[in-house]
Design goal:
It is built from four helices and twelve strands. Strand 3 and strand 4 form a beta hairpin. The N and C termini lie far apart (99 Å). The strands form four sheets. A four-stranded antiparallel β-sheet has the order 6-8-9-10. Strands 2-1-7 form a three-stranded mixed β-sheet. Strands 3-4-5 form a three-stranded antiparallel β-sheet, with no helix packed on it. The longest helix is centred in the N-terminal third of the chain and has 51 residues, at 14-64. The protein has helices at 14-64, 91-94, 138-141, 208-214; strands spanning 73-74, 88-89, 101-102, 107-109, 125-129, 134-136, 143-144, 166-170, 193-198, 203-207, 217-220, 223-226. Helices cover 28% and strands 19% of the residues. The protein has one domain (35-226). It has 232 residues and is α+β, with helices and mostly antiparallel strands.
Length: 232
């Protein structure tokens, strides 16, 4: 038998394997939050695109209806309501611009539409569901009967500083409007902030703290409200 060098068996000791696993775990813990934020930024971008499209549809609606903005809620019995004798929400006035099928109250779709934020967990159904993630300010959209009646709504040309005033915000499902002063119904889905569609058509993300800080404070009775973003 010829003499020669023996081939050593190469491998890792248990301690070395544990060290490698620990390093991988540390790296994963460092990277996962970044990946999570990156995914949320991607969803935020889709949300901004949705709001941009809904903003364009709003302008088309205004062009079709003598510059009147959609009401956030149409009273029962209004001849202008899509379903006649039944009250309905603002999004059903804009749904035809996206060729969406609707019921009296809901959007009919088995997948997300332009009215749905990808960070908003909602149920979709072909027979209709509360899948709307956005709503207008009640101080500009109003409610009532369009064109005629005691609450005629607001015309687009009445809005002062359209680059500063918020038309649509991210809200809870199943609501028709948000109350600007105390941020009732507004959802802060994206990194402690929310996307907003302004009356000039641009869409912008702002943190809740920034919105509260920048808005003008008005005293109403015993309360102080930031309202300047929402009022015409």
């Amino acid at each position: 038998m010829a003499k020669g060098k023996k081939c050593a068996v190469c491998g890792f000791t248990l301690i070395e394997l544990l060290v490698v696993i620990a390093i991988i775990a540390i790296l994963a813990a460092m990277l996962l939050p970044s990946l999570s934020r990156a995914r949320e930024r991607a969803r935020q971008s889709v949300c901004m695109s949705n709001l941009k499209q809904v903003g364009v549809a709003t302008y088309m609606y205004c062009d079709d209806y003598d510059d009147w903005l959609p009401l956030f809620y149409i009273n029962e019995g209004s001849p202008y309501a899509p379903y006649g004798s039944t009250g309905t929400g603002w999004y059903l006035l804009l749904a035809p611009y996206f060729n969406l099928k609707t019921t009296v109250w809901q959007i009919c779709s088995t997948k997300p539409t332009v009215f749905t934020c990808p960070s908003h967990r909602v149920v979709f159904s072909a027979s209709g569901s509360w899948s709307v993630s956005y709503a207008p300010s009640q101080y500009t959209a109003y409610y009532g009967t369009p064109i005629s009646g005691t609450r005629r709504g607001c015309k687009r040309n009445r809005i002062k500083r359209p680059d500063y005033k918020v038309w649509l915000a991210e809200t809870k499902a199943g609501v028709y409007s948000f109350n600007g002063p105390d941020f009732t119904n507004i959802e802060w889905r994206h990194n402690d902030g929310s996307n907003h569609c302004y009356f000039d058509g641009h869409v912008e993300w702002k943190s809740k703290k920034e919105m509260e800080k920048d808005a003008t404070i008005v005293v109403y009775g015993p309360y102080s409200y930031p309202y300047d973003y929402w009022w015409p």
